[in-house]
Amino acid sequence: MKQYKYKLINSIMEEKKIHIPESIVKNMDDNNKKAAEIMNKEGMEEAVKFMFQHPTEKTSDGKPREMTYAEMRYYYG
């Protein structure tokens, strides 16, 4: 049953049916607000990609530095 539940949740998220209400988004800090906006517009997969990019640090080629899981949790809970 538990495995079915996770498959169902992932299926719904992949179909972009997850939408965080604006009343919640407006009360988020800037990092979470941007992630929620991406999730609402582009889906969970793109939001996760965004959340693993450091919000301020760049690599030598100017792209956002990829964060570790621990760093991502620091910024996005």
Describe the structure.
This protein has 77 residues and is mainly α. The protein has one domain. It is built from five helices and two strands; from the N terminus they run H-H-H-H-E-E-H. It has helices spanning 2-14, 22-25, 30-42, 44-51, 69-76; strands spanning 53-58, 64-66. Strands 1-2 form a two-stranded antiparallel sheet. Helix 3 runs antiparallel to helix 4. The two termini are 27 Å apart.
Protein traits:
2 strands, two-stranded antiparallel sheet, 77 residues, 12% strand, 60% helix, mainly alpha
Architecture blueprint of SSEs:
Blueprint: H1 2-14, H2 22-25, H3 30-42, H4 44-51, E1 53-58, E2 64-66, H5 69-76
Antiparallel strand pairs: 1-2
Helix pairs in contact: 3-4
What is the share of helical residues?
55-70%
Q: Tally the structural domains.
A: 1
- What class would the helix/strand composition place it in? mainly alpha
Approximate strand percentage: 5-15%
Number of strands: 2
Q: What is the overall shape? A: globular
Characterize the biggest β-sheet: 2 strands, antiparallel
